[in-house]
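Lab notebook: predicted structure, single chain.

Context: the supervisor wants predicted structures on file for every construct in the current expression panel, including those that have not yet been purified. This is the next one on the list. No modifications to the sequence; it matches the entry in the shared construct table.
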Amino acid sequence: MGIFQDHRKTITAGFVLALLFIAAGQVAGQGLAASEVIAALARWGHFLAGITWIGLLYYFNFVQTPAFASVSADTKADLFKEGGLVRRALWWFRWGAMFTLIFGLILLAGLIKEGRVSIDIMIGAALAIIMWFNVWFIIWPAQKKVLGIVEASADEKAAAAKRALIASRTNVILSIPMLFFMAASAHFPIFGFIG
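Prediction complete. Output recorded below exactly as produced.
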């Protein structure tokens, strides 16, 4: 039962299962045309990375940060160390953000090429790019100080923690309209299409 004991095997099993379903669709003649494969893979990657990124954003803001208020300094130190919970979660968080952006830009390029760009998707994309910037250029550099990856005084760590918290809470605020407009663009356009 290794797939239930090792997260890498669990992820691999999920991809294998998805590919089996995709292959069954192809064999049944209901699958993707060759021209649709890149867009389908980009959309799938965008969903997977986006769920990882936003799920961890909500975990940090709604679960971890409030829980840390009652955690001892020793426990916090264990959670912050290399290989600890916080560093692992931040790794998935920032790379979830990166791959969400990459796959999203591939999808957006396809929409632009096809002339199907909605104002809704542009609003969602703009908010997502601001959020991605916050992750890579505000939250992660600040967290490196908080976690002790980068040398910092106690005052610098406190300032970095505050900066990371404000950027993270900003991302929570931005995520709500971002998710709405990402969904609206394909299912119920609010503003319509460009051009």
